[in-house]
Amino acid sequence: MLSTQTREIVKSTAPVLAEHGTAITTVFYRNLFAAHPELLNVFNHANQAQGRQQTALANAVYAAAVHIDNLENILPAVVQIAHKHVSLGIKPEQYPIVGEFLLKAIKEVLGDAATDEILKAWEEAYGVIAAAFIGVEANMYKEAREQENGWNFFKPFTVVRKVQESDSITSFYLQPADGSGVPEFKPGQYISVRVLIPGEQYTMIRQYSLSQASKPDEFRISVKREADNDPNGVVSVYLHKQVNEGDTVEVSAPAGEFLLDTTKTTPVAFISGGVGITPMMSMLETVAVSSPERPTVFLHAARNESLAAFGHDIEKHALNMSNIKYKTFYSSGPDGQITREALASYVDPAGDAYVCGPVPFMEAMIRELLAIGMKEDQIHYEFFGPAMQLEQA
Ligand code: HEM
How far is the CA of 302 from the centre of ligand 1 (A)? Predict the structure, then answer.
């Protein structure tokens, strides 16, 4: 329990730290990686290069500090981040290391303004925040371990099939190399894939949504190939070009809480842009298998026909469903974008909508779904990339 004085210091200095947040976390990562280069096996270098992770961590620590009196207020955000941490295999013993370098960075950036009293207060507050994360993550690890065929951290999987879905998206069917089955997962969850690309010094980890309904023996991910010179594309280009059937990649257990509520039978709309279609495929197949009478709408936006994936899968699932409408909108074609009018004609505003795609697409879809009368709690979405929302939690 933090003393009242400590809490007051933390809350009153949080805005100062927030103001220097990006500078502090930039120094933090520089020094952290200099002292612990092994952590470069865990962090996404592309996010680092773009400063995205710096902002995410800074936001998270300050938001937690602002809510230090009632950390349960930010529990939903903690849970979302904890899913990511668990998927990455973050361990409790890494928290003090991050804490130490965060404190040192605060001191380095703020100089004399960071008095011993202020630093002590932040050290204590970090301890409380870290304990909250460690506790939530310990439960998640336990749950993952105790599931049938469950495991913690990474284990080798064999690529048993590689199937091209469009000009840019290829699916990889993955089975545990030890011959075991895979745990049941919820539609919308993702796995992490870890690879050591020849010629690279450090492993790289990326998250990919599972793109089919839960099956006992395999996972499927569907990866969009980014441009060869895009730092975000290093792993996707490697998977597309160099990983073939029979090869091995390391995989962590399913995680994430952008989930289809499978207990509902009310109307549901799946709305995706580009590779955001992947979690929607898992959700659609789950509805097709488990509640085929559920009124369902599946809208997808793609630039053109050659980039639209899963046309056959969608048709196949639709054949099993008694009440489905589906359509792909090509931005280069006569239909153009998914507009408010299109949403109004397809989507039942009394149901639920699941949205996934690039950030501008999601912002537009959420805005238009609200405009046609949906309430915020009926609209479910997941941004790919570092979560920025903790502040609003
Ligand atoms: C991701 C916060 C501790 C490693 C994140 C994200 C946030 C965050 C907000 C982005 C989540 C997302 O992408 O959805 C925090 C806070 C911590 C903490 C508040 C301490 C209380 C740690 C520790 C490690 C770690 C101890 C391990 C050394 C990572 C990694 C990512 C991540 C590798 C993925 C992003 C990337 O690779 O760029 N964390 N974190 N974090 N965190 Fe943490």
Answer: 31
Report the Cα 367 to chain-centroid distance in Å.
Answer: 21
Among the options 137, 165, 368, 382, which is catalytic? 137
Mean pLDDT of the chain: 92
What is this structure's pTM?
0.94
- Establish whether 137 is a catalytic residue: yes
> What tens digit of pLDDT does each residue of 6-35 get?
999 998 998 888 889 888 888 999 999 999
Q: How far apart are CA 279 and CA 222, in angstroms?
A: 10
Rounded to an integer, the average pLDDT of 376-388 is: 74
Q: What is the largest CA-CA distance in the chain?
A: 69
Report whether pLDDT(388) > 60. no
**Closest by CA position to 78, among listed 257, 311, 295:** 257
81 Cα–ligand 1 center, Å: 7
Which residues contact ligand 1 via a Cβ below 6 A? 39, 42-44, 47, 53, 56-57, 60-61, 64, 81, 84-85, 88, 90, 94-95, 98, 129-130, 133, 386-387, 390
